[in-house]
UniProtKB/TrEMBL annotation:
This is Zinc metalloprotease. The chain crosses the membrane at residues 101-124, 381-401, 435-456. The keyword Cell membrane does not apply. It is found in: Membrane. Keywords: Hydrolase, Membrane, Metal-binding, Metalloprotease, Protease, Transmembrane, Transmembrane helix, Zinc. It is an enzyme of class 3 (hydrolase).
Amino acid sequence: MIWLQNALAFLVTLGILVSIHEFGHYIVARWCNVKVLRFSLGMGKVIYSKRLGKDQTEWAISILPLGGYVKMLDAREMGAENIAASELPREFCQQSVWKRIAIVSAGPIANFLLAIFLYTILFVHGVPEPAAKLRVIPDTSIAYQAGLRYGDLITAVNGQQVQGWTEFRWKMMQAGLAEGNTLLEVLRIDGTAQEGGKNVSIEIPLKQFNSKDADSDILNFLGLNLARSREIILKGFLPESPAFLAGLQVGDRIVEVEQKPLLDVIDFVQVVNANPSKPLKLLVQRRQEKFVLEVTPVSQESNGKTVGALRVELQVAPLEMTVVQANPLQAFAKSVEKTWDTSIFSLKMIGKMLTGNASLKHVTGPLTIADYAGQTSRTGLITYLSFIAVISISLGVMNLLPIPVLDGGYLLYYSLEVLTGKPLHDRYIEVGKQAGLFLLLMMMAIAFFNDIVRLIPYFGRLMS
């Protein structure tokens, strides 16, 4: 049933985004007194329609749910001879170049406005998310060598305040594209700190980071992750568990392995995985008593490797959370900034992919979007609305690219018309459309290929 939930969430997302985009075109066309013949959600054959308003605009639902369009009175499609003389002043091509620019750009602008609106609502309401507190950092990692430590709370990146993990990761991704040094402000609580901790400034070198590597997950590249609870508590046992046979009980707390203190659950799992069929001495706390038990992890296959396993269920402690919230004015300003930053980041990534400085693996298609739509819708309304905002920005940016058949392609034509004082010849426009269509088909093929690699493990292993 998950695939059905994903499909429904995807269709709802797409319906919202396409409706807003096309309504942008529609409303500005009406403001410019251009006659709108049809407003369609979906492409292809019309399966339902109703005519409304003094212009009897046809509001339609078409059979293919991918996309939509606004059909205006246009002599290029209908022929000027088939348009009544009284209607010609309302024909699209009769409008000034500035009106045509306004109508075409209104679709992407509507997507940006939707993102700003959604983010504003979310920031006013308050968005709960993990605090930007760092997990244990390998001593060989870039972050550790730069001076970051377990439990550090990130408060600012390059002078910009950070309120949560998502914002921290986002600002680090932006810094990674810049490929320079990044200054982090950290609140550190240790044995020498006064009440509330001490502030530390740490410079992280990012010149080694290449957005082709590690699928651009800059935090993994640096050796950073979310801090976890230090409590490692047994919740239950799976069949034939060596831990149960050794005498461990539900509620036992694992303190050390081979006299090495454990930092969190992940640390414990990594130690067990690294020691298949090797006896391990565990320091166990049961209520007020501490004692040592020897346990031998069984060997099992995982992702083509032999790993150790105790076949236990561990209690998952909740992450330390914070609420990112602002008053309406601050929320609006924060939303505009986030929409702008996301748009610029998207353009930079596209530029890096075109120049070969970023992997084409980052191109995603409808299968991946549907998967994320389903996941976020199951997580909750706040996460789902955040997802819609991100995709709305992506749709706006994509449509502004100067590719013929997209809004950006028409804006390029009209910009040339402004510079030259005359419209581009129809022959050049037709050639541009064919080239643009070919380019879009190539992008779609790459996106579908990437979707298959991501979502079907067999293909993923095949390509690794």
